[in-house]
Amino acid sequence: MRNIHLLTGKPVFAPMGSTANKHGRLIANNIMGLGEKFKGILGTAVVKVFDCNVGKSGLTESQAREAKFDVVTTLVPSSDVPHYYPTKKPLLLKLIADRKTRKLLGIQGVGPGEVVKRIDVLATGMSLGATIDDLPSFDLGYAPPYSTAIDIAAHAANVLRNKIDGIAPFITPMEVKDMADRGEDFLWLDVRSPEEYKEKRIEDPRVKLVPLGMLRRRIQELPRGKKIVTLCKAGLRAYEAQTILEGSGFKDVRIMDGGVEAWPYELKSEK
């Protein structure tokens, strides 16, 4: 049976046992004369692949573009609980939103961490027409065994807000890869530690390692007239580096979404 997608209003084929059971109840209610209508679906799906949890809800980036939304995305790696908690596990979220209406259009998540909780929360938000401005104010359950103080889903929404509002000039890994493949002349500024760099890194002659703590002392090594893309492990230090460079007069500095943890291409390792 085809359903109507809640975000596009168009028919969609997404067979799920959960949807079939909802249809069964709705049919029974209508047989009894209750006049109930099924509003539609988001195509939410989750699956466990060995030790990895995978989930999605709403539109993918390509589906959102095909539906003519003004698409903006973010990639946010994190742990599912605070970094100091012994049960922490990594996960990666991708959020898709519409730049004009600021409505959340989709979420995808992967990792050994608790992915499904985030999928369910944001699927609920999308069902109710939530915007990325609504999500950070959701009053979710918090304690260190279950979540970070600001949950990764809310953090991802905040990153999208910063993108749309021009607070932080992000660029996606795919856009950076396209720049590199076209042979563009830019500086890829890695602000992680030398140990992190040896463990895994992007192998490219445009990459320059300057740990964040040394950036101000070595800032004269950087070309002021060249585009600079900052990166770190997950994005925070890259953001700090961008603000340092912008404050020092650099004009064209971007932050790579999600850092090395969200880089979907080959990495070099010295392990």
How do the strands and helices of this protein lay out in sequence?
Elements: E1 3-4, E2 11-12, H1 17-31, E3 45-49, E4 52-58, H2 61-66, E5 71-79, E6 90-98, E7 104-111, H3 116-127, H4 152-164, E8 170-171, H5 173-181, E9 186-190, H6 194-199, E10 207-209, E11 227-231, H7 236-247, E12 253-256
Parallel strand pairs: 8-12, 9-10, 9-11, 11-12
Antiparallel strand pairs: 1-2, 3-4, 4-7, 5-6, 6-7
Structure, described:
- The chain has 271 residues and is of the alpha/beta class.
- It has three domains: 1-41, no CATH class; 43-164, FAD/NAD(P)-binding domain (3-Layer(bba) Sandwich); 170-262, Oxidized Rhodanese, domain 1 (3-Layer(aba) Sandwich), CATH 3.40.250.
- It is 27% helix and 23% strand.
- The strands form three sheets. It has a five-stranded antiparallel sheet with strand order 3-4-7-6-5. Strands 8-12-11-9-10 form a five-stranded parallel sheet. A two-stranded antiparallel ribbon has the order 1-2.
Query: How many separate structural domains?
Result: 3
**What fraction strand?**
15-25%
The assigned CATH architecture of the largest domain is 3-Layer(bba) Sandwich
Q: Assign a percent range to the helix content.
A: 25-40%
Radius of gyration: 21 Å
Total number of helices: 7
Low-confidence stretches: none
The neighbouring-strand order within the major sheet is 3-4-7-6-5
- Structural class per helix/strand content? alpha/beta
Element pattern in H and E: EEHEEHEEEHHEHEHEEHE
At the fold tier of CATH, the topology name of the largest domain is FAD/NAD(P)-binding domain
Total strands = 12
Distance between the amino and carboxyl termini: 51 Å
Average pLDDT for all residues:
95
